[in-house]
Amino acid sequence: MRYECVKAKSLLSKPHVADSWFHMNRSLNAYRGCEHGCVYCDGNSEYYHVDNFYSHIRVKENAADVLRKELKRLGFTSRSELENETLWSFLDAEDAKRIAEKVPRKLVIGACGGVSDGFQQAEREHKVTYRILETILDYGMPVFILTKSDLVLEYLDLLKDIHEGAFANIVFTITCAKDEVQKVFEPNAATTSERFTALKKIRKAGLYGGVMATPIIPSIGDSIENMTQLVKDTKNANGEFIQFGGMTLKPGRQKDYFMRVINKKYPDNSDTIERIYENNNSYGQPIWKRLPVNVMIMGRHACKKAGVRDRSVRHKIPHEYESNNLVLGVLLDIIFRMGMFLGMPRSATKPYWELAARIERGVDELTNLQKEGELFQRLMIDNSMGQTVEEILKSDSCQVLKNLEATIDRKAQTELDSDIRVSPDEFV
What we know:
Blueprint (H helix, E strand, L loop, with lengths): L1 E5 L19 E2 L3 E2 L23 E5 L2 H11 L5 H7 L7 H10 L6 E4 L9 H5 L1 H11 L4 E5 L8 H10 L2 E6 L5 H7 L6 H13 L3 E6 L10 H13 L5 E3 L8 H13 L1 H10 L18 H12 L15 H20 L4 H16 L4 H6 L3 H5 L3 H13 L3 H20 L10
Parallel strand pairs: 1-4, 2-5, 5-6, 6-7, 7-8, 8-9
Antiparallel strand pairs: 3-4
Helix pairs in contact: 1-5, 5-6, 9-12, 10-11, 12-18, 13-14, 13-18
């Protein structure tokens, strides 16, 4: 394994708005390359221009300093700056709160899991992610972490401090219920059982946390037994949710390496997987009609039976209105159900996304706008969308979402009854 210390010129990604997968606003990578060696990893593809992705780790040793500069450039001020350069320490709690509310809207920063895991083995020596988290704490930002490592537990005190001022949402990628299967595809990551143990400790500490069961490998991870066990283990760990997703396989390095492992370890599954990805789609998308199972729909079915949420949770950021967060969460659920579960076109999701983006960028408290009769005008929405928003404010849900979920549940029952596997394209 080769570690190379490099100087990052920039760190934060372009802005994310109304992100229905991870609910982030910006993401970053503390390292280029990843030692976990996951054989399906998208980061190994030529798309990211990282040679020797698994064995040559570029350590962004100045990442925390770059992050600090970028946040300052966006108009944020750190707590340490306020205390050192102003009379902040002499303000009472109410005055301090009023000043804090005038700064730009806080960003949910994805500090780990973009392409490379920030808690890979290199972190034990170089502590880049730790220094990034210290910076996030200093700026009072919420943090989202996606990892396959239980090393995150060593930073529990720091994460609790972040959670106290904003929130810390620690999500584990877990796709194979059995450790022996998981070790084939994620050879250097923490075992499945270690990750569930870590999730349980995270939740016991009062932090947010759940499971991203993605990518589920066709014909290997998509069995009812595997998905059901993942759901049960999530529930036992008190995870907030488990969200299932399929696998992309880009032609070139990623696909070639993955298929070599399949041919060696799971030769009986090789032909099935080859047929699913023989289109060599540049984005790695499969031939939907050849998938044995729609993992999102069947994953939801398993979740409903166990009483576990099958969707990631949007948490309220500091100084955000409760009603705004409530409406945002439901709108993002609608977008996700339409696009990811039912394969509906963007023209269908666009009005909901535009409204979600408008609310997330900042509007007055929705309940007050409703009382003042200005809800439709201020949100720039028609009567139909306005009625949906009012329904959410009244009942925490809406008929649009209920209808979508009823359709999804019927699809699941059809698959179970007939054993005919259909694709998202056929749901449109």
